[in-house]
Write a structure and sequence with these properties.
Blueprint (H helix, E strand, L loop, with lengths): L4 E2 L13 H13 L5 H12 L1 H11 L1 H7 L3 E5 L2 E5 L5 E6 L5 E5 L4 E6 L2 E7 H4 L3 H10 L4 E4 L3 H4 L32 H19 L13 E4 L7 H25 L4 H27 L4 E4 L3 E5 L7 H11 L23 H4 L7 E5 L5 E10 L6 E11 L5 E6 L5 H10 L4 E2 L18 H5 L4 E5 L2 E5 L5 E5 L6 E7 L2 E7 L5 E6 H4 L3 H10 L4 E2 L1 H15 L2 E4 L20 E3 L7 E3 L14 E3 L3 H26 L6 H25 L2 E6 L2 E6 L4 E6 L5 E4 L9 E4 L5 E4 L6 H10 L20
């Protein structure tokens, strides 16, 4: 096929353990079973422990199981949008002649298909293994219109939006008019413009002659991600030693005779510990695999390990493996190319455990470097990646997905450009749109043309363009007005007489300025709170008072009243006069974030109860394992467990109680953030000018996810305990701390006026 897009998916049929959890439980049950003789008991335990690898070997060897073990994937081609099963058969198909358009929601990234009878939601693009750019370019090559729309998929499945329409001013009976695909309330023109710009750059790279770099680099460049700590070899060695120790202990207990219950419990503990260590080390070694790029003028190679030898030897090996030169025009397809029914490893985007992904320079027109997808090392399913490279040929077909997680984007882009490759980087990222929460606005707000919020007659009202108030809220129903800043925009929150919030909206949508609302509400005697404005006035007052001084010399000339008595106090003067000793009225020092008045947020009750339970569980596990281990020397397992289990319960409760007495709490104040324990110890504090955002970090795989960002976007601190996020957000908004990650590109505009 001329144009085809295959979704990212892992390899199928490779050798890997199958169902390790059930086999571990089976091995533990076999160790507890009273089987005689001892050699049969040991054989059952070891066979159950080796079950995952035996089942994986059988599944990898048998052709039928190898074909059916691979994951399914999605494919977009001239046939339409298809889901291909592990055996190559179609699981789902949306025919090309029945597809009227494709849409992608910008809020949750869900792909939807517009057809004659409505709209069908396929799923999130990352789960489908498709990137927005590749989908956009391939669909347009196939003649399928693609639209990026605001909102979520639930907004697109509104039955009122399922009927296609025509452009404004077109004749409804004109069948040749362009069809408007109603895939949402509004289109995200900015996101579509970015994709169109990238497509234009790809077209320019495909049709223009390659430009040699000003200072071409000689020799290949080798870029690799950081070595994991501990290294993979140490992790694998630890897993092997744990497995060997478990085998030795099972054989030793089998030789002594597994007649007693305590002996079988000890064997079960050894089996559980050793198998847990083996499987954990395997998962850790897979997750911590490296990404190594070898970039030459003729070939790009991505592998999991570096080539042995010097870079010159690597260049020689690459030249021998790919002897073709790099022409300036697109190369004609050869009969040896794989058929579309069998995606190549480069199209899959998965680096094999042994070998590498290799792409010849003759097949590459441009490389798109930016965030993308990569295959999960454990499951093979696609997941988001901070850095990935998409290779397009001269027909704008995707020829390879090259993972680059863990590699510096700056070094990678320049290394590619220095060796003659055309590099395209996405533009500025889309601004993060905060949750404005406008669903609580009354319908009358939108029905009044030119409506605005006004303060009159001791309450609030909604007036039309002529100034007539059409909706009133009396003073007795208004418990408080709070003015604050969210994402750089002024907001108002209204509370009822019980103190519950019932309305929140940006002032730009209400068509009233912050100053007008504050001053008008205070003139009418309404309870209004503007903490940021009050903090500004206090700071201005203290800065003004700090310059005032008292005259300390009675013989100096002072601005005193000549009619005042001898006991009159000296007047205040400003500035320093020559020959005058001044006594300054110094302003009080600024309070630290740990001492400033604010809100103290504790860990949630659910988290504390869960931690208590986990502490008790770990203590009981240690008590039972100790009783099984030392039971034969202490009168048997039952006698040892009779006192070790209650002791473990007391130790777990007492240990966590000691920790809970001094648990950390987060203090949010106008001065900044601080973590203070219950006994008053300050673990860390950050001043207000160093905090550019507080919120959940979704950009990186870290625990805990609640972090504090600096103005440059760097993570300053991580909050190790989980406070109530709703209370934390409310506290940040109340004291002027920004909620959410900082947006260095541009501020998010407020929503359009109603």
């Amino acid at each position: 096929m001329e144009h085809e897009l295959v979704g990212l998916h892992g390899f199928g049929g490779r050798f890997r353990p199958v169902a390790p959890g059930p086999f571990v439980l089976t091995a533990v049950a076999a160790a507890l079973a009273p089987v005689r003789p001892g050699w049969l008991w040991a054989a059952l335990v070891l066979a159950a422990a080796a079950g995952p690898w035996l089942a994986g070997a059988v599944a990898a060897v048998l052709p039928w199981t190898a074909r059916h073990r691979g994951p399914s994937y999605w494919r977009l081609s001239e046939r339409g949008l298809e889901r291909i099963g592990p055996d190559g058969g179609g699981l789902a198909r949306y025919e090309r002649d029945r597809i009227e358009g494709l849409g992608v929601t910008t809020a949750d990234g869900v792909l939807v298909v517009q057809h004659k009878f409505g709209t069908a939601a396929i799923g999130p693009l990352p789960q489908l293994g498709l990137e927005p750019l590749t989908l956009f370019v391939t669909a347009r090559r196939l003649g399928i219109p693609v639209r990026l729309v605001h909102g979520e998929v639930s907004d697109l499945l509104d039955p009122a939006l399922d009927e296609p329409g025509h452009p404004p001013g077109a004749d409804p009976g004109d069948d040749e008019a362009e069809l408007v695909i109603p895939l949402g309330p509004t289109r995200d023109l900015a996101a579509e413009r970015r994709l169109l710009d990238q497509e234009a750059a790809l077209l320019a790279a495909a049709h223009e002659d390659a430009v040699e770099p000003a200072s071409p680099a000689s020799g290949p460049a080798v870029l690799a991600s950081a070595e994991p700590v501990p290294s993979r070899r140490r992790v694998q060695l630890l897993g092997a030693l744990s497995g060997a120790l478990g085998v030795v202990m099972v054989l030793r207990l089998a030789v002594d005779g597994p007649d007693g219950f305590g002996v079988r419990v000890a064997a079960a503990c050894w089996v559980l510990a050793s198998l847990t260590a083996v499987h954990a080390s395997r998962r850790r070694s897979l997750v911590s695999s490296r990404t190594v790029w070898t970039i030459d003028r003729d070939t790009i190679e991505v592998s999991r390990r570096t080539r042995r030898g010097r870079p010159q030897q690597a260049a020689t090996a690459l030249a021998e493996a790919h002897p073709q030169a790099r022409p300036q025009a697109p190369a004609e397809p050869t009969p040896e190319e794989p058929t579309p029914e069998e995606p190549t490893p480069e199209e899959r985007g998965v680096v094999p455990a042994r070998g590498a992904l290799s792409v010849a320079a003759t097949e590459i027109a441009a490389l798109v470097v930016g965030p993308g997808l990569r295959a999960d090392a454990l499951t093979g399913r696609p997941r988001r990646s901070d850095l990935s490279v998409l290779a397009f040929d001269h027909r704008l077909r995707l020829v390879a997905r090259l993972p680059a997680h863990g590699i510096d984007a700056f070094q990678l882009a320049h290394a590619l450009a220095d060796r003659g490759y055309r590099v395209i980087t996405p533009g500025a990222r889309a601004p993060r749109s905060p949750e404005y929460g406008l669903e609580g606005l009354p319908e009358i707000f939108a029905r009044v043309p030119g409506g605005r919020l006004v303060v009159e007659d001791g309450g609030l009202g909604w007036a039309d363009a002529a100034g007539e108030v059409v909706l009133r809220m009396p003073e007795d129903r208004l418990g408080g007005i709070e003015l604050l800043t969210i994402a750089g925009h002024a907001w108002v929150r209204l509370y009822d007489s019980d103190g519950d919030e019932f309305f929140a909206a940006p002032l730009s949508a209400l068509r009233i300025s912050r100053t007008d609302l504050r001053e008008a509400a205070r003139r009418e005697g309404l309870p209004v709170n503007d903490a940021e404005y009050d903090a500004y006035l206090n700071a201005a007052f203290h800065s003004a008072v700090s310059t005032l001084t008292l005259s300390a010399d009675p013989d100096t000339d002072t601005d005193t009243d000549p009619n005042a008595g001898p006991d009159a106090a000296p007047a205040l003067t400003s500035g320093l006069e020559p020959g005058v000793v001044q006594g300054e009225l110094a302003a009080p020092p600024e309070p630290s974030p740990a001492d400033a008045p604010g809100v103290l947020l504790d860990a949630t009750r659910r988290s504390r109860v869960g931690t208590y339970g986990m502490s008790l569980l770990l203590a009981e596990i240690v008590a039972i394992v100790g009783a099984a281990w030392l039971g034969p020397d202490l009168g048997g397992f039952v006698a040892a467990a009779s006192w070790s289990v209650p002791a473990g319960l007391l130790v777990g409760l007492g240990g966590y109680w000691l920790h809970d007495r001094d648990r950390p709490r987060l203090r949010v104040s106008p001065a900044g953030l601080a973590v203070v324990t219950r006994r008053g110890r300050v673990r860390w504090e950050l001043a207000r000018d160093r905090v550019a955002g507080v919120g959940i970090d979704d950009a990186a795989e870290r625990m805990p996810r609640l972090v504090v960002w600096s103005p440059t976007g760097r993570v300053l601190r991580q909050v190790t305990f989980p406070p109530d996020l709703a209370e934390l957000r409310r506290a940040c908004e109340r004291y002027g701390l920004p909620w959410g990650p900082p947006d260095a590109d541009r501020p998010t505009p407020p929503p359009p006026e109603l």
